[in-house]
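Progress report, Aim 2. The chain analyzed during this reporting quarter is listed below.
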Amino acid sequence: MPSVYRPLVNFVAKAMQAVLNLALLCLGIILVVFLGKETLHLATYCLRRSGE
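Predicted structure tokens for the chain:
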């Protein structure tokens, strides 16, 4: 590959890596939130059942 395209390739690679990192971060946050909600739901269900 000619050295003329090297900066463009590096820029595109870094941009794609940044987009992928942001997407994975968002996915991780969403999964943690839903896991927390499900855990709280299960805990309240178990506590209500044990109180009967």
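The mean pLDDT is 93. Residues 8-52 form one domain. These observations will guide the mutagenesis work planned for the next reporting period.
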